[in-house]
Amino acid sequence: MAAKIKTIGVLTSGGDAPGMNAAIRAVVRKAIGLGMNVKGIYQGYKGLLNEEIVDLTARDVADTISKGGTLLYTARCSEFRTEEGQNLGAEICRKHGIEGLVVIGGDGSFAGAQKLAARGINTIGVPGTIDLDIACTEYTIGFDTAVNTAMEAIDKVRDTSTSHERCSIIEVMGRNAGYIALWCGIANGAEDILLPELYDYDEQKLINNIIGNRKRGKKHHIIINAEGIGHSSSMARRIEAATGVETRATILGHMQRGGSPTCKDRVYASMMGAYAADLLAEGKSNRVVGYRNGEYVDFDIDEALAMQKNLPDYMVRVSKALSI
Fold first, then answer.
1. Which pTM was predicted?
2. Catalytic entry in 55, 63, 107, 131
C-alpha cells in the first residue's frame, strides 16, 4: 500500500480556460474531505519556483465555480523546461510538504508534471485548454464555453454581414488545432471553414466559391478561419480585390477564453478535479485525467503525451456537405 499523502498542491499552467476555477474548487474540497491539506500555487510553474504558495481551505474556493479565468493565475515558465528548474521545483515541493500535485493545463503543463513525477512528486494532470487538442480525452476544460462564446459572436457578425452583403472572415482561437473553427463552422452555417490540419492555402477556391454563391443569389459569405492559419486581414484584402465583394476580417481573440463557464464546463471540470484528488489519495502518480465514452478515466502521462489526435473525418465531411 502506498503511504497516505497528507498534503497536495494545485496549480494552473499555460493558457487560462473557463472552468479552471471549478476544477480547483473540486480538488480543494474533495482533497479536504479525504483528509488531505491543500496548498494553492500561484502563477503555475513560475510561481512554484518563486514559492508563491498558500494554504487553501474550502471557504477560500467558495463562490468561484461561476467565474472565468483562474483564481490561482497562470504564467508560462521557460526556466521549468530546464533540468535545473525541474530539480528546484521538486525541492520546493518537498520544502513545503507537498507530496502530490494537481496540474491543470495542456500538453506542455503535463510535460512539466511528468518531470516532477520522475523526481518523486506524485502528479496528476487535468486537461484545461479551450483548444480541445489533448489526444487522450474527448473533452477539455474550457472548450464548451469558448466555442459557445465564439458561436454567439459569429451570429452577430453574420447579421451585419448580411445587411451589407459582405464576405466576412472570422478568426477563432485554437492555436494549431481546428476544433473551435470546425464546431463554429457547423453551428454558424459557414460557407467555408479553414482548418490548419487540412488547409491547402489555395485561396482561389475560396474566391471561386464566393463568386459562385453570388451568382446563385447568396447575399453574404462567412469564412471561419482558425488561428493556426491566421492572416485574416490580409486574406480579406486579397479576396475583396479578386471578387469585388466587400470583405471584412474579424478576429475574436481572447474574448473566447473569458466569461462565466457553461454548465458543461462547470460539471465536467468539477468531476475531473475530484477524480484527480481521488487518484492522489490512492497514491497514484504520473497520470492524466480524461473523459472517454461517457466515463472519467486516467492515463499514464507518457502514454497520453505520445497519443495523436486528428479531426473527426465524418464531422469534416458533414461540414462540407452542409455548406452548399
1. 0.95
2. 131
